[in-house]
TrEMBL record, chain A:
This is tRNA nucleotidyl transferase. Gene3D superfamilies: Beta Polymerase, domain 2, cca-adding enzyme, domain 2. One of its GO terms (molecular function) is ATP binding. One of its GO terms (biological process) is tRNA processing.
Automatic annotation (TrEMBL), chain B:
One of its GO terms (biological process) is RNA decapping. InterPro entries: Ap4A_hydrolase, ApaH, Calcineurin-like_PHP, Metallo-depent_PP-like, Ser/Thr-sp_prot-phosphatase. This is bis(5'-nucleosyl)-tetraphosphatase (symmetrical). It catalyses: P(1),P(4)-bis(5'-adenosyl) tetraphosphate + H2O = 2 ADP + 2 H(+). GO terms for cellular component: cytoplasm. It comes from SAR86 cluster bacterium. The keyword Hydrolase applies. Signal peptide: none annotated.
Length: 335, 263
């Protein structure tokens, strides 16, 4: 059995960038042998294992064949006779299909190093289209600072178009799409992801009616989601399985964007739960988004915090409700 | 006859002029206090500095970038954006003016006290303590600037206690007054996080405070906050002008804000 470092980490090292985590491919082994050696199997469908100490991913060399729609319509083939080159052939881009052996020698059957030098995103083979998510993933690569100035070869552009026309994007799982967007959100140029997606019409069905972006003012990925939602008046983030933390921030941002001076509903202010959400409201306001009236919201929050809600506790429940409405009416009258 | 506090200018001279026009600043009647960081990052640090030195009615507290300028004026190397100041024939005058500037200014008006610092005040100190520590720090800077910039740099100590030696006390005081954003209730700082989130899960320094009703703390330094403290008593004036945001002035007399957008 032989192990090789493969994929993004080799690429990043060659570009002089510290890789996030290293992936490895194992040739000439079997799941039984891996488990025997202390590796922990993960993933139902793939022969992928975690190293007992480093927790890095080790995958048995495999080939893939598409056999139906969607991500699960794949057949894997792995046995000790699958070579490293067979494994590299199934990968998406030439720059991601470079392997490094334990001596540091590079195995680069598709001239990925040339493409790194010439800053080209080139597909390894026509099998690129077998996983339609790869079209969207190209945008994610562009969001990395060290890959952002790479260009896509005409042949790959044609494949992206083919994926779009096939309608296969509709069959992607929303979790996989979310993972791509969220990774892009954490990178240096998240806007390049969205602009790529818009330019190549890959926005449907996942990011309907998204606009091109100049850039984000937030440097934090949670806040970038809020910004994205505000800039695009998104209504259908429900399709994407966002973490609840981000969902909450987006829903607060939507409420804030709807507050208008001549249309203030007391319930609206009440439902903001200002005291509980103060920190989140502060974060959203700090973005300085033009879709919300910063001064008005700040004023509302400050007046709300002046209200002595503790006094209400002394009243009986019915009176408490009325008195609270009176206090909020009073607040609105001061705006 | 009004007193204005203006947030971090960072060498944005055109924006400063525009803001002064907007508030109809009259140097013979009005006065201005800056929250520090007059220089660096922007293109016209020299112009901002010369302008502030010219007017008797202008004062500033020192920010981390101003202290960095002092260090650069005393050293051999100067960063690109401060070169014009450090190579200037009046560099000695600049230095003399800067080292005499305080780290804290207190202004009483209409029964209120406005306390102006660049970054913040730790919850482990009272306002009274802070004034004493700030004064001590100014004295040490003024008396021996060379020695001060030698030892005043560094992230440690990140918490005050009464066993610190003189140099450590200078450092922690400088960190509190000119660099702090997040700290815990006992005043331990997270000096690495500069966004809206503390990697050490500390609160924002002003969120620990329960300030006397008649007091206000005015500060700059924290562009990511964009002036949003959501607390009437803590007034953040760094609204990220040099990053493409706004420059903000706050009139003490009636607690009103004035803003202009980056040109």
């Amino acid at each position: 059995m032989k192990t090789y470092q493969v994929g993004g980490s080799v690429r990043d090292e060659l570009l002089g960038v510290e890789p996030h985590d290293k992936d490895w491919v194992v040739v000439g082994s079997s799941p039984e042998e891996m488990i025997e050696a202390g590796f922990r199997p993960i993933g139902k469908d793939f022969p992928v294992f975690l190293h007992p100490d480093t927790k890095e991913e080790y995958a048995l060399a495999r080939t893939e064949r598409k056999s139906g729609k969607g991500y699960h319509g794949f057949k894997f083939y792995y046995d000790p006779s699958v070579t490293l080159e067979d494994d590299l052939l199934r990968r998406d881009l030439t720059i991601n299909a470079i392997a490094k052996d334990s001596q540091g020698k590079l195995i680069d059957p598709f001239n990925g190093q040339d493409d790194l030098l010439n800053k080209k995103l080139r597909n390894v083979s026509n099998a690129f289209c077998e996983d339609p998510l790869r079209a969207i993933r190209l945008g994610r690569f562009l969001s990395y600072k060290h890959i952002s100035d790479f260009s896509i070869t005409p042949q790959l552009k044609a494949i992206v178009k083919k994926i779009l026309d096939s309608g296969e994007l509709n069959y992607l799982s929303s979790d996989r799409v979310f993972a791509e967007i969220d990774k892009a959100m954490q990178n240096h140029f998240p806007e390049k992801f969205f602009n790529f997606v818009v330019e190549n019409k890959l926005d449907k069905p996942w990011l309907k009616d998204i606009n091109s972006l100049d850039g984000f003012s937030a440097s934090n990925s949670d806040l970038r989601w809020v910004e994205l939602s505000c800039l695009n008046h998104f209504t259908d983030f429900d399709q994407i399985p966002l973490p609840s933390k981000i969902k909450k921030l987006i829903s607060i941002a939507k409420q804030l964007a709807n507050i208008e001076i001549d249309n203030i509903l007391i319930e609206n202010i009440d439902s903001l739960r200002i005291l509980r959400n103060e920190e989140d409201i502060m974060r959203i306001l700090s973005l300085g988004l033009e879709c919300m009236d910063q001064n008005l919201i700040t004023k509302i929050v400050l007046l709300y915090k002046d209200i002595k809600f503790a006094e209400l506790e002394k009243l009986d429940p019915n009176e408490r409700k009325n008195e609270k409405i009176n206090l909020l009416k009073d607040l609105v009258s001061k705006l | 006859m009004s007193t204005y506090v203006i947030g971090d200018v960072h060498g944005c001279f055109n924006e400063l002029k525009k803001l002064l026009k907007k508030i109809s600043f009259n140097p013979s009647k009005d006065s201005i206090i800056f929250t520090g960081d007059l220089v660096n990052r922007g293109n016209q640090s020299l112009e901002v500095l010369e302008f502030c030195m010219k007017e008797k009615s202008i004062d500033t507290v020192l920010g981390n970038h101003d202290v960095f300028l002092i260090k650069s004026l005393l050293g051999k190397k100067s960063p690109e954006r401060l070169k014009k100041i450090c190579a200037h024939k009046n560099k000695k005058k600049f230095l003399q003016w800067l080292v005499k500037k305080p780290f804290l200014i207190s202004k009483k008006l209409n029964g209120k006290e406005f306390i102006i610092v660049h970054a913040g005040i730790p919850p482990s100190w009272s306002i009274k303590d802070t004034k004493v520590f700030a004064k001590r720090l100014s004295k040490n800077l003024k008396n021996n600037p060379e020695q001060f910039v030698q030892h005043a740099w560094g992230n440690k100590p990140n918490t005050w206690n009464n066993k610190l030696n003189d140099e450590e006390l200078d450092r922690v005081t400088l960190n509190y007054l000119t660099r702090m954003r997040f700290c815990n209730a006992s005043g331990k700082m997270d000096l690495k996080s500069n966004g809206l989130f503390s990697k050490m899960k500390f609160k924002k320094w002003f969120q620990h405070w329960d300030l006397d009703e008649n007091k206000r703390v005015i500060f700059g330094h924290w562009a990511a906050l964009n002036g949003k403290t959501l607390n009437r008593q803590f007034i953040g004036l760094d609204t990220a002008c040099v990053w493409g945001g706004k420059l903000t002035a706050f009139r003490l007399d009636d607690e009103t804000f004035f803003q202009i957008k980056k040109i």
